[in-house]
């Protein structure tokens, strides 16, 4: 019981303003400024005492990390607003975790490291609307490591993240149509088969057709 109580106390730890500022490595004046700018959520009030918790501490450390990376307070405030209003990770994953894709947990500063100036509130909101991103406490969850890595690589090649997300939205529509085609074929002609066993075959057909289509498009553009 003692260990359980200790764990519970750790999870529920709270701080007065002076203690929180010291732990975050900032002054009380700076903490008040961040609170006035709504960069951190309001504290819990108990009479005249304001109590802060580990979520406030994590947010303050994130703000410091983003400032060190060259982000402005205005940009951080917009990111914080988008982050606080984002969809929850439970909504992101829906009925369950992806069967093959691996979700990735990121801090806001890790996301900023991957996408730099393109990590704007508009792009963050678009990613959440598309179903790529969700929030879990002070962390961001991306639904697919493959999509995250590919998106970051495209941005590093000079393609704006907004364009990558717009393309992703179009691809989503076509991918849904392809999935419907193969699901119908399988359920119609092999209803007793294990869908998990046939799924890789459908993916191989799509990958091969996409590769051939890219060849056709690139050759067409290069000769036009």
Automatic annotation (TrEMBL):
InterPro entries: DNA-bd_dom_put_sf (IPR009061), MerR-type_HTH_dom (IPR000551), MerR_fam (IPR047057)
Record keywords, A-Z: DNA-binding
Protein's UniProt keywords contain Iron: no
Pfam families: MerR_1
Protein's UniProt name: MerR family transcriptional regulator
Molecular functions (GO terms): DNA binding; DNA-binding transcription factor activity
HTH merR-type domain ranges (all copies): 14-82
